[in-house]
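Long-time lurker. I teach an intro course on protein structure, and each term I like to show students one example going from raw sequence to a predicted 3D structure in token notation. This year I'd like something fresh instead of my usual example. Would anyone be willing to generate the tokens for the chain below so I can use it in lecture? Attribution to the forum is fine with me.
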Amino acid sequence: MLHIYIDADACPVKQEVYRVARRYGLNVTLVSNMWMRTPDAPWITLEVVGDEPDAADDWIAAHVRKDDIVVTADIPLASRCLKEGASVLGPNGKPFSESNIGEAVATRDLLSDLRSAGEVTGGPPAFTNRDRSRFLQQLDEVVQTIRRAKRA
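-- Reply from a regular --
Happy to contribute to a lecture. Here you go:
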């Protein structure tokens, strides 16, 4: 059954995931390094992992299956989940795919090298209502696409 996993520690679109999951009757698992408040619903689970680096990423990568959906801004995690056959969305609504993940990894590595060399590269752009709207629309489309493919 289609399942949504959220890399939850800094995810700004949890409420949007809940709305879509409720509409389609999907289970949601939030994976975090710390306890957080979640709606009291039997289809929402919070998985608290250790505080080791990448503990949440490792848990998600170990549990995700083909046709699941992962919500994360973490590019290495996105790459791992794509290899398992999952659909991956950034919180800004932009999908990660086999055709764009290589460029995303390369850009991430380049920016990391620049920061290590002392270059100021700035952070990600501010999260906007437009990002939230794009995410909601894209998540709905991904769910519908997976469901249609399973019926075919």
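Some talking points for your students: The helical segments are 14-24, 55-63, 75-83, 101-116, 129-151. The beta strands are 3-7, 27-32, 44-48, 69-71, 87-89, 95-96.
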